[in-house]
Amino acid sequence: MSRRDPLDFAAIGRRLAEERGPTYWRSLEELAEDPSFVTFCEAEFPSVAPQLDRRRFLQLMGASLAFGGLAACGKAPETAVPYVEQPELIVPGETRLYATAVDFAGYLQPVLGRTQAGRPTKLEGNSDHPACRGAASAITQAAILQLYDPDRSQAPRYKGRDASWEAFLGEAAGWRERWDASAGQGLHLLLGASSSPTLARELERWLARWPQARLYRFEPYEGRHYAAAEQAFGRPLERHLHLEKAELLLCFEDDLLGSGPQQVLHASRWGERRRAAAEGRGQALLIAVESCPSLTGAKASERRIANGAEQNRLLRALLAEIDDGPAPELAADEQHWVRRMAAALRAHAGRCLVSAGARSDAAPQAAVYRLNDRLGNLGHTLSFSAPLQQLEIGGQPLGDLGQLCAALSAGEVQSLLALDCNPAYQAPAEAAFAAALEALPWCLHAGQYYDETASHSHWHLPLSHPLEAWHDGLAADGTPCLGQPLIEPLHATRSASELLALLRGEPTADSHAQLRETWQSLDEAAWRAALERGFIEGRQPTPVAVSAAPVALPAVEAPGGYEVLIRPDEAIWDGRFANLGWLQELPRPLSKLTWSNAVAIAPRQAERLGLRNGDRVRVEVDGGAIEGAVILAPGQHPDVLEVRAGYGRRRMGRVAVGQGFDVTPLRRLAEPWRREGARLAPLDGTVPLAITQMHHSMKAEQAPARRLPREVARQPATAAEQPSFYPATPAAPPPAGGPLGEPRWGMLIDLDQCIGCNACVVACQAENNVPVVGAEQVAAGRAMHWLRVDHYYEGSPEAPRSSFLPVPCMHCEHAPCEMGCPVNATVHGPEGLNQMVYNRCIGTRTCASYCPYKVRRFNWFDWTGDDPPLLQAQRNPNVTVRGRGVMEKCTYCVQRISEARIDARMGDRPIASQTLQTACQQTCPTQAIVFGDLSRADSGLHYQRETRRHYALLEELNTRPRTTYLAALEDGLPADETPEGRSDG
């Protein structure tokens, strides 16, 4: 595609200068009033599209009414296959929950697996586990889709061809004899990150039999936090951030709320702190110092934009201010910022926390530990324990990827086993890992997919999914978790522990027996209790008393060129989840990009180079280069580029291959996540990017995502403050809901708690069988998500402030969609739900054009008709799979309401609205969503709706929505202590 004209940044500046008060915007194209943006909006909103003449309108309406009657009379054919013998404990339509866990970068994510008729359909967070409290991240929930992925490896392969386990066992016996003869000399094993005691025990048996074997671990984006602890305390330790106790949190390039294996733990604790502050119990200040936008920066009370060299100066100066050391030379605004921040930290000593990103160098992280020590935070807001990850086996430290590369270059490797990792794709390009694998006498890869490493190995063996095997490991808080299978293996696969036992000559090893042997200290009653709960109580890691040594943080000079940050993608991480359509199509929290990665650049640099979204560029540093599309990132440092990993896959599956570009050419073994001195050059052509930022735009008279000062928010609302067409807020809740005493369902979303993580979006998709449509259809505005999380900016593009706004169906009392439907396919239920009658819908899309919130989704095609039978097994049987030509939307999880209603009738009791949760509410790590009965004072909704924070979206339209919001809270340092030179974000 040809290049387009650049955006008019001068016009953007003039428009912002002319505005009075806060200016909210969603994209630079909107600010510039770009013609392509206006055209897209006109196509998206039927109300401003070209109108039909009266004659044609009446013709179509007449046909619609006729066909609508026919559609409502028909019934889809069904085929029922009864059980010959009813399976024990399986009741048709009844949901059963099993506690288990899935792995993410070595940390287990505790979940409850929902099964129906013996078939797993959804993963929820384990409500009993202290690390998640019932919440689950988007990545964790998508593990259920991975279980049914038809591209998962299903049988062994030898040199790319299908083989059998028997053939592998025959060849492995010969290699086992060679290893026995040499005591394992030349045998090298590369592992992904693991915290599993059972796997560690199997590896100890390996070393006992082959003591000359060498073990390595490789986790591409783990960071250097163990090395930092070793520098500060003399030994590697695990850091534990107690965010619920931190009234002041200062983060240096540390996206604590962003995607990762510890996201739910951190978000849950941060949300607890915010709720306490909202109730008047202390403060909850968050200060972010970063070079690129992040979720933590978006929720920060104050955000300072600084590149690596500037952050180094600020941290050294802060260390000197608090630890009485030599201070670097600073600009005036930097000096002011450091003095004010040091004063604030001292004022919150013992109740504050300073953190640095795990992918920063070890020295800055060690300096941060020293700061926390001096501030009295150790043992309060920050604690340490023994490492949760396996860093040594049988007293032998696990080597790193660099040491394995050195052994490969020296010819020391005769046999290599790559277990649950993909170095041929994930290793830095300088390692030339694929070529090294080809030169080995024998190489074995074991994983869930036939990926890049598998294609360069002699043998590939399929590993079982975590939901198919017994396993164990540690959660992010150190709690031991037990994972039990929810289903028999769907393919000829084995677990990692079973595979290691097989290679030792035990082909009949069973993962259940291995797990029970590991935890033989538990008696049968304790074992059963642990399986039921999914974790072992009372086994949290013991805190280690430490004192940080003084740190001499070396200065970092800003080199010429750009600084490049290489980060894992928010959804598909390092590519291990790239074949999951739910995650590929999930709009990234800040950019709203789907199905691809891009080179993020600051708007001012884009203006200087004449770039706009989708234009192709080349980034080169020290001989490594990538080519891809560019995306403009408001709030990014002008001298910094950001790229996301996980794309450019060459092998894995039909969803993963062909999306985006590979970033590994920029990585180096010594600098895997940050490069300096990069050059950027525009190229000819553009790449179409599927960005949803401006899809489903609402026209609002007031700010959609609102903020209130904390002191004002605590005051009760008055009737005079409400719109005149609303009745005054009653002093007490009405005694009953509807005329027959039905519940009055409603939802409340707390914008102060929402971090924009998108866990709710995936939960809704999994619960309600929402289809994946692909990049082309997403770009056309046809994504089917029932719940979207809008991202709004406020302020200038160089340093904007961010706000998130989850938008499900509002379930309006005066619903425009109900008035617009010609066949009564959308109706108002007795409990206040705006309901869809799918077999009446004839697809006129009138309801979508009438809806001011743009929450209705139309099935332009049959999205699911070609899905393999394996994928169809994941679908929720309690939710209809919609066909082509049908409108759909959020239902408040009406199937869950119906289930609760049936249980209440069988027990002759009212519906327990306090325990009834929608899918989005259940998974939210910060508890930002509350659902319940508006007519009950104990539902958790009523008293919050009487505060000044409460408001309705587009309330000027008088739609009377059941879904309402609590405004975010304004907080920060006092005005006279606010550091200069910062930006709010």
UniProtKB/TrEMBL annotation:
<dbReference type="InterPro" id="IPR017896">
    <property type="entry name" value="4Fe4S_Fe-S-bd"/>
</dbReference>
<dbReference type="InterPro" id="IPR009010">
    <property type="entry name" value="Asp_de-COase-like_dom_sf"/>
</dbReference>
<dbReference type="InterPro" id="IPR030948">
    <property type="entry name" value="TAT_var_transloc_signal_dom"/>
</dbReference>
<feature type="region of interest" description="Disordered">
    <location>
        <begin position="700"/>
        <end position="738"/>
    </location>
</feature>
<feature type="domain" description="4Fe-4S ferredoxin-type">
    <location>
        <begin position="832"/>
        <end position="861"/>
    </location>
</feature>
<dbReference type="InterPro" id="IPR006311">
    <property type="entry name" value="TAT_signal"/>
</dbReference>
<dbReference type="Pfam" id="PF13247">
    <property type="entry name" value="Fer4_11"/>
</dbReference>
<protein>
    <submittedName>
        <fullName>Molybdopterin oxidoreductase</fullName>
    </submittedName>
</protein>
<feature type="domain" description="4Fe-4S ferredoxin-type">
    <location>
        <begin position="745"/>
        <end position="775"/>
    </location>
</feature>
<dbReference type="Pfam" id="PF12797">
    <property type="entry name" value="Fer4_2"/>
</dbReference>
